[in-house]
Specification:
Number of helices: 3
CATH class: Mainly Beta
Number of strands: 9
Strand content: 35-45%
Length: 151
């Protein structure tokens, strides 16, 4: 189960590049249901996600590099590339902000996601001051939607 909130970012913290990050490339084989292939650094996955905005089922299966490259050629729409910075929410918190800085076709787009253990924690979350609009429930900034956006 994936429970997350998503925010549009216009001014990230000045030191965000000092945090660890993953280099991500992903494409979508289907957007309903969501079936995605992803390269994260040197790991490869096939992911299924159910319908939903803040809460949805998510299953990840490992792929080989060859399988990933083969399936990526079959992806529809835009291939998304981004750096995902992992920023601790606060010293006393177990939550991590995943700050996505998009590259390629969506260069300039910045989104932050925070994953939660349960819906109650997600619903009562108070974001840091540098977070912009909460876009969790619009669906407009779901990566599967971005993959289908006309450029």
């Amino acid at each position: 189960m994936e429970i997350e909130r998503k925010y549009l970012i216009t001014s990230p913290p000045e030191d965000y590049t000092s945090y660890p990050f993953h280099q991500i490339e992903q494409g979508y084989l289907s957007t309903s249901p969501v079936v995605r292939v992803r390269k994260e650094d040197d790991s490869y996955y096939l992911t299924y996600k159910s319908k939903g905005l803040m809460v949805r089922e998510e299953y990840n299966l490992p792929l080989t590099k060859a399988s990933y490259e083969h399936l990526l050629q079959k992806a529809d729409g835009n291939i998304l590339t981004k750096k995902r910075y992992l920023i601790p929410l606060a010293p006393e918190s177990t939550l991590t902000i995943e700050l996505d800085i998009f590259e390629g076709a969506f260069k300039g787009l910045m989104l932050a996601e925070v994953e939660f253990e349960n819906e109650q924690d997600a619903s009562s979350f108070h974001p840091p001051a540098w977070f912009g609009d909460d876009v969790t429930f619009s669906g407009e900034y779901q990566n599967s939607r971005l993959s289908q956006r006309e450029l």
